[in-house]
Batch of 4 targets.
Target 1
Amino acid sequence: MFSEGDVTAIFLTLRLATTVTLILLVLGAPLAWWLARTNSRLKGPIGALVALPLVLPPTVLGFYLLLTLGPNGPIGQVTQSLDLGTLAFSYSGLVIGSVLYSLPFVVQPLQNAFEAIGDRPLEVAATLGATPIDRYFSIAIPMAKPGFFTAAILGFAHTVGEFGVVLMIGGNIPGETRVVSVQIYDHVEALAYDEANRLALLMIVFSFLVLLSVYGFRKKSQRQILSFGS
Amino acid sequence: MVVFNNWQFIGLVLLTGLSFVRSSIDADEATIAVASNFSAAAQQLAADFENKSGHKVNLVFGSSGRFYAQISNAAPFDVFLSADQQKPLALVENELAIKDSLFTYARGALVLWSADSEKVNNSADVLRSNSFNKIAIANPRLAPYGIAANEVIERLGLSNDLSKKMVLGENIVQTYQFVATENAELGLVAYSQVFFTGQLSAGSVWIVPEELYDPIRQDAVLLNRGQSNKAASAFLEFVKSPEGETTIQSFGYRTGEP
């Protein structure tokens, strides 16, 4: 049903989305925690920066990534001095681009979940002698579990659906940067509408199931919260 | 304040109406779908054409594959300047375009280009050396320039050596972008992208000899929607005219038969 190229693209996409989601959960959680708890004047600007990929056209992000990853860009200079060459057209470059692109989809649900915990449990923990690090790992993270679930799913799904950034920095290398969305685009451009249809249908079914699981889970966890209250 | 009586008012309305009718008799407005590699040349052609004819043309730039899909689904275009021959022909076969209007408006030329002024020494030598990170070409599955680039690499006997270093642009515009930002040190791009009025704009270049690739013919066609649009057919005539050809050549394309 799917050609070898399609299958390669599907597995590459899943690998990319998994890597990006794991990185984002590790990096995004402390950031979300800070955003949820801080009174710093930087809260507004940092929050806005995190949310930027929501409103920017992916081509803007992709274009600036192409410039910063290039040999004269700041990231390109660093990677070259580390003997890594430049990162455009590589899987690593794609990971960096996707982490930036999917950042708000992970940070915002986590931030909401952390804010929903409120001050009370943390104050209680503090009076019992828990250090800030203790409170983060043994109170905040367990209590924000539904937030982690939503964040992981949205981050994963959004990375799977990424197109513009990959198109700008990917270079369309099979098994390295040719993800499903690019493969579909290529099929359409090459007038191979049957192949495009099959892959596109797969994406629709996948995305629907992902969203269904998020909404299904939300309903369940709300019920749990309610039953705690009553 | 000027006050009109009834008759004057009716006369005014008629005049205004007439002037609309007149202008639509003399001057039409056409929408032209242009393959993005030809955008600079098309803008010049459109400006000259509008000055000369009084017609108006709206240019829309994009990929030929996408235009094909859009035209097949009734997109409001009157003329299609494609980057290849296959798509205009397919539109004719699907009875979406006028067969007699089909012609080659430009032939693209390919160059090996680097943004580094030392890299390419007016020959294919650099391709045989190992002194570059990547070579960008347009995707041969999608872009005629990519097919030509593949032919060049094959005829030079370098397919195996270069396969690991190849990155693909979705079209020749993106391929150029990869090289211009120096993410790829070399690229096979369009002559029209790096030469302006005969001068190399930046970097270093090798103009690939024409015998190394089959001609990159770009065809134009009048679409069904533009059939009775005077601006559309006049624009195509202008593109074909000696004046149009001179403009097209000045943007680095070849015209006429090879």
Target 2
Amino acid sequence: MRKWKLFSLIMFVMLNMITNDLKAQGVPISGTVLSEEGTPLAGVTVAIIGKNQAVVTDDNGKFTINVKAGSVLEFSYVGYSARKEKAAAGMEIHLSKEGSSQMSDVVVTAFGIKKERKALGYAVSDLNAAELMKNKNTNVINSLAGKVPGVNITQFSGSAGAGASITIRGGNSTSEGRQNQPLFVIDGIIYDNSTTVTGNTGTDGLSRSNTTFSNRVMDINPEDVETMSVLKGAAAAALYGSRAADGVVIITTKKGAEGKVSVSGTSKIASSSANKLPEVQTEFGPGTLSSNGVLNTASYNSWGPKIPADSSKYDNIGKFFQHGLVYDNNVNLSGGSKNGTFFLSGSNFKQTGIVPNTDYNKTTFRFNGEQRYNRLTVSANVAYSIADIDRTLTTAGLYGSGVGSMQALYTFPTTYNIKNYLNPDGSQYRIYSGTLPLEGDIDNPYWIINKDKLTSQTKRITGGINASYKITNWWDVNARLGYDQYATNDYTYIAPGSALAPLYQSGRLSKDLYNYSYVTTTVMTNFHKTFGDFDTHLMLGTTSENTNIVSQNHWGYNFVVPGTISFNNIATTNKFFTDGTTRKRLVGVYGEAGISYKNIAFLTVTERNDASSTLAVQNNSYYYPSVSGSFVFTELLHGNNILSFGKVRGSWARVGKDGNPYATLTYENPSISIGSFTGVGNQYYAGNPNLKPEIQDSWEVGAELRFMKNRIALDYTYYHSQTNNQIGQPRLAQSGGFIFSTLNSGSVINKGMEIALSGKPIITKDFSWDVMLNYSYNKGRLGAFIPGVAYFYPTDAQFGTIKAASIPNGGYFLGMTGTPYYRELDAKGNQIPNGRYQVDPTTGFYKVNTTGTAVVGNREPDFIGGFNNTVRYKNLSLSVLFDIRKGGDIFNGTEYALVANGLSKKTLLNDRQSVTVTGVNSQTGADFNQTYTVGQNYTIGSTTYSGAYMIQQYWQNYAANSNNFITSVNWVKVRSLSLTYDFSSILKGSKIIRAISATAVGTNLFTWTNYKGMDPEVSAAGGTGGSGSQGIDYLGVPAVRTFTFGINVSL
Amino acid sequence: MKNFKYIILGAVLVLGSASCKKWLAVNADPDNPNNQSVQVQNRLPWIEHFYQYTAGVTNYRTSCQSGVYYTNSGNPNTFSTTWQCTNANSTTSYQTWFVEVSSNLVDMYNSAKKIGAYHYMAAADVFHALGYMEMLDLYGEMPYTQAGTGNPSPKPDDGKTIFNGCMAKLNEAISLLAKTQETGAPSLASGDLWSGGDLGKWTKMCWGLKARYMLKLSKKTDLYNADSILYCLSQGPQSNADNIVGPGFNNSTVTDYLYGDPVVTNGNFDYAAYGSSARISQYYYNLLTNMRGAGVIDPRMSKIVPAYMTGIQLDGSGKVASYTWTRSIGVDSYGPSARLVKGGATSIVTPVYAAANKNIKYTINDATDLANFIADQAAAGRPYTVNGNTVTVTYKAGSIYINSTNYVYAGDTVYVNLRSSAIATSGIPAQGQNDVNWYPSVDAFNAGAIASTGSFQVRPVSDQEILTYHEMNFIKAEVYMRKGDVANAYTAYTAAIQAHMDMMQAKLTSWAGTYGLTNPDMTPMNSGDVSAYISSTAVAPAGSLTMSDIMLQKYLAMGCSIENWNDMRRFNFSAGNVGSFGVVYPGYQRGPLFTGTAQLTGAGPTDVRYWMRRWALPPTYEINYNSVNTLALNPHATDPNIWSMPVWWDCATDDEYYGYLKK
């Protein structure tokens, strides 16, 4: 509230400070505007920035305008990207067509400050609307994949409404509660992008791996985006201080333009289907063998006898998934007058998932307006969205039992038709109803998708008011109030008769409300002065942020009267209610000073001080400085025809990351009542009363070179960052008294390289070809960690036999630990790499290192890259984006589950008649060679085992070896292929329709990969923080391939 | 004018920064109390409950090791049957103690100290001793001095340090209990779920625990002190009225935050009788039916060994009209194990209820088995048809039967499991609080078909025995026996048996009017049977008392308790090489299903490493997460045969103990 008062006062001061109006004394200058191909452009608007003065170019592209020295001109022309340049006599401007991949010369940096690219001492990547729309995805994050070096996108799953996560230059915090995703800033307002899990893992099944969650940036309508700037390094983001460690994505939305009102609309329809399904064997039927070979046929494992040729088999998995459909409609209206502009849009995105009865439906509205009152410019924007997901449980997540639709689907023996899931009386048809109690059974996937109901609805409003007042032509003041609020309502209904703990077999219901609100204020003042050859600027600002989250969980079980699904129909003793309040506040003061010499050398320093409510009071105020510089050496080499532009740059910055709310104290569990006593005890999270912020120090160097009149451009960056005082809440030794303890400990080191090469091999009037190739790698390592702890298990990402882990003292940040087979030992007692396996004579199988502490993989790719092409012939343009990845381990947990339950095709080895174990005896070191054959008996120790049982156990032993399911994965994907035809030329002379085009897009069309599982891109617990769950593929909804057809019309 | 506005602006900024501190002070969760504000009288019931929970899982799993129970559940079966101990057993005791209890002790102690609530400080000390001694019994070494305080990588301590620490805490507790609390400090009665704040009982518990712990040192010639133990006993519980028990209830469906088990029930129930896996072992069954070869059925037998209904006839409305109670027999893991050898270590099958007639067709190739099987069906009065080597049996509606086509399993109904039902676990809403029988399904409940009556110590409403007068007497008997004072040993031995009978009888009597209405095993023993038993040769006659007599009666009485396994370790199980006591636990041995050669590497019974002597530390929560510190103290902590490494008190000398910890 106090901040709000401060803000109003400043507004009041500004409005009253109308002082003497300095008249611009201009001198006339002339210039020419040309197309990229060098043809003159007539009718280009040339405006002086900050003044209501503009002229239009003549037929030769010439213009003359009165300007004051140092003024900046803006050149705008329909169909071309607008450009800003400092006014200079005889200037020659080349405008490029909208959508071409040439980097613009002005980029949006921290706090929305536009800067000339050449002045930057750090790398910034940006994408414009046309590039985003080439492979439009309803999640703008996904449109970045393959296009920006250093950016890694991980899609959560192929289900409707599933989100994606983005990391830039690797992660900085290992712990699962810590997000490594960049800050999103939309029109100057920080925009929440969390993937919030409401409710209770054990009782609702609502955990990251058990159902579908969106990331909240999905609430943005991608069609509203004008540009996206990715501030990758700490120096670029330094002004955001304690929010900057993971980089920043700045999104600027569209604004109206002066001139006539224009309307445009797009309509798209898309069809998607599962990319690849797991393959299962159909030769052997259900059953589990006991050690003496007796078969239990009432089993969800498939170790039973051969299925007779004449009996039915069902392609349950193949028939389960459907074609998903998307209807995507957008309309926007924009326009403006001399003093004001507006932009209005509405959209609806309606998607049905490949899993029946799942869908995602998003509706958005946006209004952006700007009004100038002499020296004061006031702008406002507001966006409203409603996003609904109908989802399903995918894997186990319900207390007592409950396996989820995907897990059940990939488990069901192929001799049963899963479509037969109901009894005539409406109860669940259970194939082993006489044998398995309900709580020991698994639900039929069709029961789950048809009877249970899981929905999530989010309504969101985001808006801001921005006022800027130009006190003189070298001094302005800006103030901004931003607001972001959403409410998520999650609903989980588990139908009576589901396979759950007995307590819940009469049905259960939970409702979760999650209300997020965020208010931010910013006041900023800029000074800009030129002294001779030196250009200087100074910016000072202050900001405050106030986040408030209120959450409520209601749940209960056992509906008294069947059919009425309501808490009102649950006895009071069986319903429960909890409340949550999360508050987080931050105040920052920041400044930036810059000096440049003759467009040759640039130097910028920034400093920010933050105070965050989340840290210990004695540690909560911190400074974050940065310094960056660039040197445009081509300014000294006049008239070089080959190298048209050359710049080197370098920067150093310190940024940080504050804590999560409430982590400074240890809290209590809900009380329990026993007899007449009430007990209260500690939660299993330990607070830390001395919490400090994470501090990241980083540096980067780079160069930007352009050749042959900008036809070829190369951008190179090398960076290094070290994050110290890592805040984490890792799982640690429980002898400490807690499961998780909040700590400042350990460091994360990231280093890597980014290269972007772009070019225009062909530019003619009718035919052009644009190419962009990018390459990047990051090596993330965990530095020192708590003494005595050899593994940092950051997340709940533990599936099958593996765990996501970071390895202290220089080990992988994105490591995996697991349970490999032991290999034979050398003379010193060490395992020989690639040596023969040890065989345990007490089991007759390979000996598994069950301690779970062996490092079995690194999930970080060796490098990633993109190859983006646009070919235009007359009105037809074709874009194709390849996404490339080399290396990085992936655990195929789905195959693991199939091997373990006997459905994997691998288990058909030797027609299940025999298996052979060869290696060395783990006790004696002697050679071991033993074949187990059906029909024989084997005595190990004092127990006799049947051969058939040994074959089943061979595969259990196979499944136990994590390494059998880990692949270092390479891929080349055709991420998107789009074909657009522009009909505008046909419409020449039409007064109504200005432009019309049609687009066909294919997404995820082909993947060439050595990965044998479903899609290597899917992560099992999407949105997990820290080192996350990327590289873990476990019983997920398959990734999808999509074909889209769309029409765009502008009036 | 302009300057004036700047002055205002400046003033506001200064005010703003001054109030900034206050504006930022929002980092305490308004919805959840934190550990600084909890009252000691709310901490204590929590600690008592979750200690009971820790002790429950520990009692159950160690009772599988000591041979009281058999289980068909894979992990504890490696304790009861194969002895191929899996560290999947290790986690729960550790986690429930350290996470659910240990940090609360620190907070309760500190909060009590601030307000001069000395009796709560004493209670924290007592639980400290109870919990950490139990951890020492199980794991040998683990973090102790640095434990429970939020230290993220606490260093472990050796067994001697832990033992001495626990004894010191008990001494401190005794002196704190003697102090008068400061004015305003809450009375112990306001938070004591166990003993109603009776300071005398608490003090006796401290002395009793000291006696129990000092007895652990029986292998150590330098530290074992019989007279000290006898002194402690003289200050400890003097009658059953001094017994310390944790009460169990069946009046709430609220479940705990970590494991989802009901919070009001007895901790032993949550593990031994929550599900259908546990059964009485033949070893324990034999002690209850044929102690000392006397052939006398112990009156306690029918209260400990569960029964189920057989020969059920349903009436027209589908209710049980007639039936016979059939008492379970024990599962043989150590003897010939005929049934297990046929099917495998975990192969005992849990029965289901036939709501309608059910036909099962068995194929039996072995002629003897076929003949026996047919005879069994005839004896049970079931309709059946024989066709060559196939037999089709009809289980009539109302039957409790095994739903498997494998004839080997068909008779498994005789191994009645220990399962008992609580309102939070039964899944049968109509089953009221006063009916704790196990019905396999709603249909079975509606008919009234009981599949298990449960067992004395492990029902939801059973008392959880923490420290009892009968245990004190057994300790006294052993100590006198070791002194060679057989007469005093004999007095204590008979007093112990009598005390246990009396304790059971009192509880059974209190149950009779409620739970006893649906469960015949929850009614008192026939008092004539009790006196007949005591005067029978099942109880050693004066003059012929052996150490084995004492320890087997103690084993019988302690039942679901870690103390049996502790005692067995002190006597080297059935090795017979401790003192001149001979084989104290005859018949306890590796059975034909033994596969634990990697875990128990000793060559023969007199080799220390032949037996289960400790648990591996939890594979994930301690070994993975704290591996460097763990291995620094005990480099063998992850060796497969860690299971046979003696803990400190199980070694005769420190040299022996530290020898094991060497690389």
Target 3
Amino acid sequence: MIAIEGCKKAGKQMDKEQFTARILALEKRMYHTAFSILRDNEDCADAMQNAVLAAWRKLGTLRRPEFFDTWVTRILINECYQIIRGRKDTVPYEEYEAVCAEPASEAYSPERQELFDEIMRLGEHYRLPIVLHYVEGYSVKETAKMLAITQAAVKQRLLRARRILKERLGGRS
Amino acid sequence: MRKLNGKDVFPEVPAPVHRAVLDALDRLEDPGVIGTEERKENRIMLPKKKNRYTAAAVVGAAALAVCSVTGYAALKYLTPSQAALEVNDHKLAAAFQREDAVLIDESQKYDDYIITLLGVASGADISDYIPSDMALGDKAMYAVLAMERTDGKPMPDTDSDEYGSVSFFASPYIQGLAPGKFNIYTLGTGYSEFVEDGIQYRLLQFDDLSVFADRILYIGVNEGATCDVSAYLYDETTGKISKNPDYDGLNALFTLPIDASCADEEAAQAYIDRINAEWNSSDSGSESRPEMTDEEKELDAFMSGITGENIGEHLERVEQTVQTLTPDSDGYIEYSWHLENGAGSENARLYLDWLGPEAGETIILGWSSSGGTIEGLCVETLTDNGDGTYTFAVYAGQDGAQ
């Protein structure tokens, strides 16, 4: 059913030190991805911790090392959804807004703060593709793989999200 | 398009999160971690490609009658529950194992394909993938379809370049509601898809339609990316939908067993009204507006076929609006235009990183029509010239171009 055999090589080629280095290099992108789903730092910490351990356990299934980033991100997304499923309620918007405002308030220009706020107001359906593609710079193809959707679906969501953002941000122009 | 670094918009990694990551990295060789790997390895599943349309919300409660649970084409196909696991949807897999799930196993053969409806499940919170921004809660209905070739050749795997070369449009339909309008695009939230052993499986997610239980509910499959209304006959008197016998191609049509006692005429009408409102709403989908006139419908249809690539074939570029723009240090461009004939004007500031085109691409920024007609159209476009500059231009219909 799953091409386990064909996946062994890449994982075996990466030792603990290499794995650690790759994870640390990816940490910020992982955090942004997790935050865009969970909108809560404590949950992000849990999700990232779980994802790192899961990725290490599943390393043997990684088909090709160049897909490491997208592969780990996909695992992280699954961990995030696991946490969401365990929640009784989703994080209220006010709660995550307070979380977001603190780190951003000093360094951010008002425009970027506003952009960040508007991104986080997007439904997750649009928010995650936006973050993965535009914030983290993953290609449409990579984003599609991470979200397990088609490239056409990614483009569709990006287009629609852009329109929503344009509409909301354009109001002040 | 210039990409933002994460640090530009998103917060840095907070210390507690970083500590959690370091802690995990320290534990990589803990016996528990390694032991887990060995136990789990045989059932690791990689997610396959999935696709979800943007869509309407989900409503209603489970209302399907229980049918035969035997068969499954001599165990040829995955069960709906197994199919759900293939796309990592554990909730849905569990839902298909509940007593109220409907396991159908009905095949229809066409020249090139065999289409099989494997089962249907519905209810609240039955999927891991119901979009969180759905307006009407977390209830949904799922149908699982299997599609295979009659010549025995495998369907293209979702990872292959051939995937998508043949597309299927699978959709729920409702007696009394025209298929061209009431289909997966308006009733659904999308689908997941994967190929296993040469068989293509599709998990359709759509609104829980049990409020329509006093009508016939259908699942149709036609070849192509959109609903081909010519594949089916819609009897406007009875509202019944049937296969068009003269249709040259795939037009599978299944009926769903529904417990008629679950019909809710009032809720059904409210649902129809909502879809009508969405159908007539602006592209952003945020607000409804009155029923469109024929001219507006024509305009809408016209614009739906306009892209940055083909706009020059349909509308005339207004040279006086053409501007070469360079983003400011914050990544914004500003543009303004005004047509002397009063057909339109605009003065806007645009954040390129998010709203601009890719390098070499032309996008449509927006459009308006002074008279609600194609002739009165003014369409804003922006092209990334690939050298750090952008070209803004308005394309207009006959009235605007004069």
Target 4
Amino acid sequence: MRWDMFKGYILKGGKMKKIFLVVVLGFFSAAAAFALDGNEILKQVDRNLNPESFEMYRKLINIEPDGTKKEFVMFSVKKGKDKIASVFISPASEKGRSTLRIGENMWLYIPNVGKPIRITSLQSVTGGIFNNSDIMRVDYSAEYNCEKIETTDSGYTLYLKARMKNVAYETVTMFIDSEKLLPKKIECYAASGMLIKNLYFKKIKDFGNGIVRPAIIETSSPLNKGYKSYIVFAKVKKRQLVDEIFSLNYMHKIEGLQ
Amino acid sequence: MKKVFVTIIMMLIMVLLSVSAFSETTDDDLVDLDLDFEIEDTEKKPYSINADIEAKETIVFFDHDALLFRQKYLDGKKEDTLWQTGVDLTAEGRYQYEIIKFYGRLNSLYYYNRNEDFESEVKAEEAYLTLQPSFSLALDVGKKVYKWGKGYAFSPAAFFSRPKDIDDPDATLEGYFNLGADYIKSMDGPLKTLAVTPVVMPIGRDFNHMTGPKDELAWGSKFYFFAYDTDVDFMFLISDNINNQVGMDFSKNLNPSFEIHGEAALVKDYSQIIIDSYGKTSEQEYTALNYLLGLRYLSSQDTTWIFEYYRNGQGYTAQEYENYLTFIEKGYSQYLSNSSRTAITKSAKYAAYYNQQAAMRDYLYLKVSQKEPFDILYFVPAITCVYNMNDQSASITPQLTYSPITNLTVDLKAGLLTGKGKSEYGEKVSDAKITFSVKYYF
């Protein structure tokens, strides 16, 4: 049917037909608005978690079922949606190791080895439950598209699907505090639909300069029953950074940015 | 030989069992945690000092019938094994004052051969100053390691670096004295990063202990490009003493668990020294092509596979290598018949060419490591195989690495060599080696 014929048909058509058309258009408009809202909420969550360009210190704590702890301290800088570089400050065995992520690409620099090597999101430079994707986290909105949003009494639930192929988790379900627009819990799923990991965001803290975010992320995995891991955040602050810092040739110098 | 294999396997099983027992958990409940974690030591200091100390016990099982054993120990040895106790101390320090930085790494090795002697070696592996006027530019002067190339076990394009130890590719290397710069430029668009790394290296008796037709300044550069999620480097070296070389490498992730890499180098006018089965020497000059293709794969069970094929264009053919071993065999027969050491002594002069690692043409390298099996955190068993495709000999190295507490690593490694007569790994001085080491970082 040609457009002028369609227009004429609608204009000349009965009341019922007009109501039907309004309902159909309204449905599509509402669906589009919902999709937009989900991604906009996700972007807002990203900005509330951290500024676009910033530095931070993190402590990674792996706890075994018998209570044995192993801790790592990292200094990280992030710029834009998908660039993050980090260096281990302690323990001594890891000191100087640095990681770099640009989009889907990840590298590890080990001082002994003396050159960056490519690593993948599923590997873990620290061992334990955290994989490289958790440690080198970029904006969720850069990695995921919101496919569905649900509103509950306790907030929003976003159902996210990976935009890229090289991500650790194919789908992610994010439970968001609708007032603070910060995540409370994230469920991470493999492509098979299997639950790989739960992330719990705890202890909201004011880091200054308008940065108010959870200071602790607790992680557990059905694949590693009895094991838990934590990321503790400190000194999260805005910082202007040049792009050249996020390059292979700069990896061994990241420690000097502190 | 069977006894050696059984001993090694028993030791590996014992360590595995003890590790499992050590890590067995009795309480499924997590300890309650106070979530008021604090991060200490986040203040920047202008200096830092780190060190590690490694105590190592090595047992070498001699192969008395091997030709390289006969070349090295012409009069034989009473012992079947060599026990070596070693302590390796590495200290590194850095200091930064505004745009000037200093980095140094000192390595001292002390070891005692139970049947031979106490020996020590101290060296500055790296010691250099960096001037960094901007994030894009850095100038380095001093003793520094430039590890170019993407290969894991082999690095044909590492023009300004000493060769890697195939048995321990991750080990630190000693650098050369040189003057280098690093310029980085980031861009929008498909080409995201461009970096240029020029290097000038003095060569002579006083610098870098390399001798050649004349003292000179060798120079070269590496050009790095990051585009379309791929790392690509082009590099060259110009020198009268070292052969002129040009090379390239690349690395790319095809998916989250699969990486491919490659590296190639052309060595112009390479001069190869050859000794035949009668001890007659000759020299052939040609442009050698060295290259490797490799991959790294991580399975869903957290098993990492590293595989490389290496073509050593500067290496010997199977026939050329066999001729060298035949000459040693004849020399040994000569020694037995008339006590003449002439031929063996002559063969030893060419050991630097023939007895070095990967001396032949085609090699396969495979390393398989399993992260934290049986839910044992920080435990990684691995097995490495270097296979000489030209003579079907091989080196097989099972290894157990465990880091039970922070800053402590325990490692047990067994190197087994296998091959028929007159093959590279079949004629090495030893046919097995066990190393147990404990390393502490502080």
